[in-house]
Amino acid sequence: MSRLGNVGARLYRGEVGYDFIGKRKIWYGISILITITAIVGLAVSGLNMGIEFKGGAVFTTPKTTVAVSQAEAVATEASGHQAIVQKLGNGGLRIQITEVDTAKSDAIKDRLSEELSVPSEKIAADLVGPSWGEQIANKAWTGLGIFMVLVVIYLAIAFEWRMAVAALVALIHDITITVGIYALVGFEVTPGTVIGLLTILGYSLYDTVVVFDSLKEGAKGITKQTRWTYSEIANRSINGTLVRSINTTVVALLPVAGLLFIGGGVLGAGVLNDISLALFVGLAAGAYSSIFIATPLVADLKERDPQIKALKKRVLAKRAAAAAKGEANEAEQAEQAQDGDVPEDAAPAGAVVGQRQQPPRGHGRTPGKRR
User: Which DSSP letter does residue 222 get?
Assistant: First the structure.
């Protein structure tokens, strides 16, 4: 078994672990700080909406040796608006200019043909109206709202309402961070971005549901025992599924990172940035929120339940009694040692007491019928 597999097995059995729940205030603070930064970035910079949402013209040229920067300068000067130019795989250029009508489109096309030394008839010009992007956005918001409602209903039925609330908070957290990073980075928002945002919702819920399922199993009959509090069981659930969450997240992030950094960054396929950035940020935020936000929030909500409160008091009282009894035994042994009256079977100070060695079965007697 690999080293990571050994760690995962020990985490699952509760032999080792990290106190995620106990340090939840730190995670809450970090999440609030990141969320505020995302909201401020969104308010200050705003989203760089694509041509599908603003309306305008898209010009596609055949293969050319003209640099992207040169084509961008020509298109911006010809239209009077900032142009976005992308290099296509066939060596051509895709030029986007917002707020362009039909009459102005023809003039820009002729200017591009002259400056780029490309025949005018080989430059494809497509006009995009803002209403199409508006329809996409409205349908996306509708789909998002329906998705949220269905998720809350399902989790409330399959688990409980506290887990449904925590999952909803985690989803809002992930979407806010993703949109805020889009605003800070300045990537263009296209229909691909909308698709990416809707896609990450499922990934975000996956890790959360895995932890919730483990927590549900671990919390069965919780009020009938006095060994663990609910928060401690929640912490064991996180540790038990931690390696699984890391593995699934890393495996999902690798191809998305290839699209974002290799395809979009190195190879210059800018159209891949739209969906890959949303997926990359959303996947990472979803893995974070399932561990540091959703489950600690469930523990906070659950600890307010009267039965769970009473359980916590019983557990702490039992531990306090056990600790007091242990201290009394230690004090008694110390007093006996001072008086020279130490029991023969008392273990030396600092000794580790383990299981006694049992003699082999049948040793010292002949097997047979009892007399």
Answer: G
